[in-house]
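sorry for the late reply, my laptop died twice this morning and i had to redo everyting from scratch. anyway the thing you sent over, i finally got around to it. pasting the sequence first so we're on the same page, its 142 residues, then the predicted structure underneath. double check i copied it right bc i was rushing
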Amino acid sequence: MIRKKKEKNLPDLMNEAIARELQVSIQYLWQHIMATGIKAVTVKPIFKQIAATEMKHAEMIAKRLYYLGKEPINQPQPLHVGHHLEEMLHIDVKEEEKAIILYKQIIELANEEKDYTTRTLFEKILADEEDHHDQFTNLLEK
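ok and here's the structure:
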């Protein structure tokens, strides 16, 4: 018998989003601390600001999930900090790309389930993630 891979439901995806937001908030904070070199002077405050935004995202998603009667996850996904500034930024671009894909999936599923509040929440968070992606990409080009 061939087993079909179980599709994730909206609460599962939302918990995945929380784990991701916790991961990158810690990751970006460590990058803020660890970044060195002349270019780090410009990038360190950006890491710190985005880390705070990501933690706010985790909180908003957790509140919504709890409202829906589900238990929010409390473990981040594994961190990928990097060793030098350029490597950090490449890692961060990839992390934001993963978030964009996940959040579009959540928005689509929330819309299908007529959960418009969750859809609206993730549309706002998606806009932030696209902005973070743009910031990291621009920093790599400079």
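The first helix runs from residue 10 to 34.
thats about all i looked at so far, will dig more tmrw
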